[in-house]
Amino acid sequence: MSKPVIAIDMGGTKIKIGLVQEGAVLSYISVDADSGKGLTPKLPVIKGAVENILSQHNLTIDDISGFGIASPGIVDSIEKRIISIDKKFGDAPEINLEEWCLQTFNLPFFIENDARSALIGEWKYGKANTYDNIVLMTLGTGIGSAVVMEGQLLRGKHFTAGVLGGHSVINYQGNICNCGNRGCVETEASTWNLPVIAAAQKNFTDNQLALHQIIDYELIFRLAEEGDSAAAAIRDRSLQVWSACAINLIHAYDPEVLVLTGGIMASNFYILPFIRQHVEAHAWTPWGKVRIEEGSFPRTAALLGIAHLINH
What we know:
Elements: E1 5-10, E2 14-21, E3 24-32, H1 43-56, E4 67-71, E5 74-76, E6 81-84, H2 97-105, E7 109-113, H3 114-125, E8 134-139, E9 143-149, E10 152-153, H4 185-188, H5 194-199, H6 217-225, H7 229-253, E11 257-261, H8 268-282, E12 291-294, H9 301-311
Parallel strand pairs: 1-4, 4-7, 8-11, 11-12
Antiparallel strand pairs: 1-2, 2-3, 5-6, 8-9, 9-10
Family: Belongs to the ROK (NagC/XylR) family.
Protein name: ROK family protein
Pfam family, one: ROK
């Protein structure tokens, strides 16, 4: 049996620190990301969480085979650095994470894009494990994507292949995105832009939605069910946006299966059937229907994926 590994999933809202062995997450700790303040202040927190989780399992660092990070942004998995990141953890490209890992833990270091990591987790251990052509789409703080084509994980010459689905343009007259483009999928329907999206609703101040300081999709779906017209309009528009993104990804990469994952999928009873119906009606796939599945590991796929990269 291979040694366990330490796996980190750097989400925009939460950072997960996990202990993973043989395709199973033995346990993980979740801490607030505070991603707008950068990654540097979180490194001591990550170190403390690792020490805590090792103590819980009566392990020492000598029992661990490697340390991996699943990071948002464009990641050079060969040079082991974050090339560019979209507003979250803005200082990360300047940090030598491999050096920090060696100095802090003296462990081999690995890093990969978080959506690619999640796709590997679903491909090797989840519902996509019988397919060689897969697109994964993550719905969370932002919108991520990743691709396996003909049994090969797509990375590309500059490490951007397959991962910029959330920055495909679906409204060329839309608002400016964090990435600098206009009308991206993320700008039109993602958690980080929900306050702007909500405030733009014509009837926003007349609805319950306006009374909440923190607006997320859990709130949007709940209030929409309760009859809040602003929340219902945002929900319905977001479903259309995500469906359009799914079709763009299907047309670009010709998958057998599209896997949907991420925090927003807690509302899967709405999202999954809507996207399935929309794709079946509008995607140009004369060979048949793309299977659309919810991920097997909505919270831990990226931990499983980065751990797999460490051990293989």
